[in-house]
Amino acid sequence: MPLNLPVIYGSVRTERQGIVLARHVAEALRKRGHDAPLIDPMERRLPLLDRMYKEYKGDAPPVLQELADLYKAADGFVIVSGEYNNGIPPALKNLLDHFLEEYFWRPSAIVSYSAGGFGGVRAAMQLRMTLSELGTPSIPTVFAVPNVSSAFDASGAPTDEKFGKRFDRFAGELEWYAEALKARRAEGVPY
Q: What range(s) does the NADPH-dependent FMN reductase-like domain occupy (predicted)?
């Protein structure tokens, strides 16, 4: 069953290396038959959070309205986050915090990365808390990508031969949760 799974990326650094990973994840989900638009803060240019989408009461800026509509139609979310000083990138936190109810009752999946060998897992643990508070609890598995600068070749293909198998298992877990929660949302939500 095709799912709508926006891929939310969080870096706005000039020489960001995780964008290759985010593009690969979105494309891999599309190859599995899903709609997986890439939400890139460099393209969306959201202002620093002053008011949440819901606080505009029907008069939100077009970029927020577009994202709200996309999120309301989503079956789940994939969050691609680097690790900045043991935490998540500020652009990602800003991008996520503009919304709340739009995430409710949909699972999220965390793809983390770092320049070092830990693959951004410290940021992933902080991100779990944030996503849970937003109403989009993360699936148990984190897809961690260490040494992101050498994780892909010049064409954007993974250099690790086990990458595809690991990703398929991760994506299968997200699909299971997204399909289960989609079915339950169709029956109604607790409140």
A: 7-147
